[in-house]
Design goal:
- With 581 residues, the chain is an alpha+beta fold.
- It folds into three domains: 44-73 and 110-240 and 404-455, BirA Bifunctional Protein, domain 2; 257-384, YbaK protein; 473-577, Rossmann fold (3-Layer(aba) Sandwich).
- 28% of the residues lie in helices and 29% in strands.
- It has 15 helices and 31 strands.
- The strands form eight sheets. Strands 3, 7, 8, 9, 10, 11, 12, 21 and 24 form a nine-stranded mixed β-sheet that branches. Strands 16-14-15-17-20 form a five-stranded mixed β-sheet. A five-stranded mixed β-sheet has the order 28-27-29-30-31, with helices on both faces.
- α2 packs antiparallel against α6 and α12 (485-500) crosses α15.
- The longest helix is centred in the first third of the chain and has 21 residues, at 170-190.
- The protein is globular and about 95 Å long.
- 42% of the residues are buried.
- It binds one RNA strand of 78 nucleotides through residues 9, 11-19, 34, 36-37, 85, 88-93, 111-112, 114, 143, 145-147, 149, 154, 221, 414, 442, 444, 462, 480-484, 512-520, 522, 531, 533-535, 543.
Length: 581
RNA sequence: CGGGGCGUGGCGCAGUCUGGCUAGCGCGUCUGGUUUGGGACCAGAAGGUCGCAGGUUCAAAUCCUGUCGCCCCGACCA
């Protein structure tokens, strides 16, 4: 492609409203243009990169035995009502009415396709002989994001690869799941991403049933914990906290003292008022576990983790109790609950055991206790891991230090079970002529996020640094002077030669000064740059530079096309080979 | 949905507090010329309902009210 004949609107300055590197660079390099909050046009370069990512995904899905289909973006709202997910999605589900003759038809734009694919399988799969099957598509999803942000990382319309496996048995599901997991590893490796599969909340099936594929990046929206020593990794929701060191020495027990804490119902207010640190305090959270009140103790500076609490209480659902219930149970308004004299069984986080002489609520408005000690002033029924992990916490597997990092979620694999097959009657007949529900898994990849995450983690002050596998073009030719006949001729010859050899090449044929061409070449990040310029050309040489290297090398003009094609192939092969390691 | 910021030629900004002449600057674009190894130079030119609506005033980019859009932080995120 000739630069002069395509559309690459590079920007010299940082666009207003773009802050994170991927957003800034995608706009500056002319990859995308914003139409509105959360909706972007992919311009030629951006589209080519997106297509590369898509093709890698497609190849690995096919290789894993998944079957490609293409489902509609539209769905009848009724389908979503059948699984109860109109409410579950709420405002995120884009729905609207259209007129068809005299009728009003209620439609939705699919934010995901469990309903559609399960309905499809329910219609056409009726025997165990047809299973297992994994269907996938690469298609646009629509979600009315409350707050689109971070450029293409969180948009209302995005390209997603979604796959759905259907199995006759749980063992089958595990096999299907593992195939997808392995395919994901290959995909992200081939795309040149430094990714981490992390354990995620698994919902109804429990166990090892969900993993997210995360790319650690400063601007990521997700938080993960990662142990460098043993490679344990989990998202914040899921991460367990390992064995904590016991308290130094109990020291002397202070006497339990009631103190005035007017208007101080939060950890921050109380600590400021009493001059104590948050870690000397214990917060008493009143939950409704399946509708029944329960008391949970967490150290003042820690965050409660509702999933852990739900499991510890053996409940299906937990939620923070409303103010009426708190008042009824504790006799005090919100913010003054405490363990002393509370008529509920106390379940405490493990770290609470190490807080001696704690500050706790007194179950009385505007009153707290100081010097509270478990065993003497209140009894803990049970200790458990109930809080979110924090940076530096011990690893649950090996005891090493875990690191808290921000990350971009690029993929998610999930064992679904029979939730949708049940709601949409996806049954099959097994070998004993018994009706069974298909057991499902679902597997998503944000294709746009692959591109954005790559840029987010692979750039320098001059611009994007593409891996050969995702680069919009493999080679850029930069003839430095379009007024000089021999330069133009050499560039044209090489351009034709490379095209004939199947190399994806961009010829910067603009009549621009060298500086402009260098800056733009760096900005759009094409891996291999070939400079055709007076100096070297006079000696029958071209200049070759990899985007990730500082210095160029010389290449004889004779046979340059073959040599460059070989270099591209080697680099491509090396990048793809990293996936097999 | 709560908090904050910003809307001025294609892009990035100044001017707004303290109302006042023909609304400026840099980049880009167009014409002519000189240049050609890291975002050239000279000369000339085009391009603006100052987001939109209403109000105050002799006079509004500037003050007031409303409204729309975009960005950031938080809440939310199958």
């Amino acid at each position: 492609m000739r630069w002069s004949q395509t559309l690459i609107p590079t920007l010299k300055e940082q666009p207003q409203g773009a802050e994170i590197p991927s957003h800034v660079l995608m706009l500056r390099a002319g990859l995308v243009a914003q139409l509105m909050a959360g909706a972007y046009t992919y311009l030629p370069l951006g589209l080519r990169a997106l297509r590369k990512a898509e093709q890698i995904v497609r190849e690995e899905m096919d290789r894993a035995g998944a079957i490609e289909v293409h489902m509609p973006a539209l769905a009848p709202l009724e389908l979503w009502q059948r699984t109860g997910r109109v409410e579950a999605f709420g405002n995120v589900l884009i729905q609207f009415q259209v007129k068809r003759g005299a009728r009003q038809v209620a439609l939705a734009l699919n934010p995901t396709h469990e309903e559609v694919v399960t309905d499809l399988v329910a219609r056409f799969v009726s025997s165990y002989r047809q299973l297992p099957i994994t269907l996938y598509q690469i298609q646009t999803k629509f979600r009315n994001e409350e707050r689109p942000r971070f450029g293409v990382l969180r948009t209302s319309e995005f390209l997603m690869k979604d796959a759905y496996s259907f199995d006759a048995t749980l063992e089958g599901l595990n096999v299907s799941y593992q195939k997808m997991y392995d395919a994901y590893c290959r995909i992200f490796s081939r795309c040149g991403l430094s990714y981490l599969p992390v354990e995620a909340e698994s919902g109804p099936i429990g166990g090892d049933a969900s993993h997210e594929f995360m790319v650690p990046a400063e601007n990521g929206e997700d938080r993960i914990l990662h142990c460098g020593a043993c490679s344990y990794a989990a998202n914040l929701e899921r991460a367990e906290v390992g064995q904590r060191p016991p308290a130094a020495s109990p020291g002397t027990q202070q006497t339990l003292t009631k103190v005035d804490t007017p208007q101080a119902g939060s950890i921050e207010q109380v600590s400021r008022l009493l001059g104590c640190r948050a870690e000397q305090m214990i917060k008493t959270l009143i939950y409704l576990a399946d509708g029944k009140p329960a008391a949970v103790l967490i150290r003042g500076d820690h965050e409660a983790n509702e999933n852990k609490i739900r499991r510890a209480l053996g409940a299906q659902r937990v939620e923070l109790a409303p103010p009426e219930v708190i008042r009824q149970v504790t006799g005090a308004p919100v913010g003054f609950a405490g363990p002393v004299g509370l008529p509920l069984e106390l379940v405490a986080d493990l770290d609470v055991a190490n807080v001696a002489n704690a500050v706790v609520g007194a179950n009385e408005a505007d009153q707290h206790y100081t010097g509270a000690n478990a065993g003497r002033d209140y009894q803990i029924a049970r200790y458990a891991d109930l809080r979110n992990a924090i940076d530096g916490d011990p690893c649950p597997r090996c005891g090493g230090r875990m690191q808290l990092r921000a990350a971009i979620e690029v993929g998610h694999v999930f064992k679904l079970g029979t939730k949708y097959s049940e709601a949409l009657a996806a049954r099959f007949l097994d070998e004993n002529e018994q009706q069974q529900l298909a057991i499902m898994g679902c597997y998503g990849i944000g294709v746009n996020r692959i591109v954005a995450a790559l840029i987010e983690t692979s750039h320098d002050t001059n611009g994007i640094i593409w891996p050969m596998t995702l680069a919009p073009y493999q080679v850029i030719l930069s003839p430095l002077n379009m007024q000089q006949a021999d330069v133009v001729q050499a560039a044209e010859e090489l351009y034709n030669e490379l095209n004939a050899l199947g190399v994806e090449v961009l010829l910067d044929d603009r009549d621009q000064r060298p500086g402009v061409k260098f800056k733009d070449a760096d900005l759009i990040g094409i891996p291999l740059r070939v400079v055709i310029g007076g100096r070297a050309l006079a000696q029958g040489q071209l200049e070759l530079k990899w985007r990730w290297q500082a210095e160029p090398s010389l290449l004889p003009r004779a046979g340059a096309g073959q040599a460059i094609a070989r270099l591209v192939q080697q680099e491509l092969a090396a990048a793809n080979a990293r996936a097999e390691a």
